[in-house]
Write a structure and sequence with these properties.
It is a single chain. The protein is built from 1 helix and 12 strands; from the N terminus they run E-E-E-E-E-H-E-E-E-E-E-E-E. A hairpin with a 2-residue loop joins strand 3 and strand 4. The longest helix is centred in the middle third of the chain and has 5 residues. The radius of gyration is 19 Å and the shape is globular. Strands 1, 2, 5, 6, 8, 9 and 12 form a 7-stranded antiparallel beta sheet that branches. Strands 3, 4, 7, 10 and 11 form a 5-stranded mixed beta sheet that branches. By secondary structure, the chain is mainly beta. The chain starts with 17 loop residues before the first strand and ends with a strand. Helix content is about 0%, strand content about 35%.
Amino acid sequence: FATTDADGRYRIGAVAAGRYLFYVMEGNQGGAPNLNMKSDNVTLEEGKTLAKDYRMGEGVRVTGKVTRGGKPVGGTMVILLPGSGRKDLGAALTGGSGFAMATTKEDGTYEITGLAPGVYTAMVQSGMGGGPAPGDAVEIPAGATEVRRDIVLSRNAVRGTVVDDAGKPVSGAQVSAVATGRSVTRVADLGEALSAVGGEAM
């Protein structure tokens, strides 16, 4: 990876020839609110240098607000995958069709830029520990400059306490819920009580 200099230039060296997923992250790279990420597929040929420029904010802008029970949800990742009914987030992250994402601010609002017209699958990832389930389609019509999509998360929750064999509380235990008959790689959202370990579709 590389970080752009004062002139916006970058160079990623010592890369073997092959196909790569090219990421551009705008904002805090630690995943804090205001992160906006876009990805593209690129192919690097042996003995050549690939010129790949990127214009921040170019394309259609998708904005909205994520709430649960009428309250804003901050620090949540909103992810858009090209196509409808997508379930292959893992493939998109490691070299599939690419994706675009942003994290919500404290007031629940988000903004994803640089999108082309078409149909996308929207997913909401409420924590890094789980995988989001497939979400609803978001259509970006040709000629649009901005599309608004507000997201209301379910208030369903599973609550409880984890203790050891002596009955003492266990801190830091990972708790997850997997829908019957589904892949264990897709962790269901546990709602407000356990939002740090799950994902939720729109």
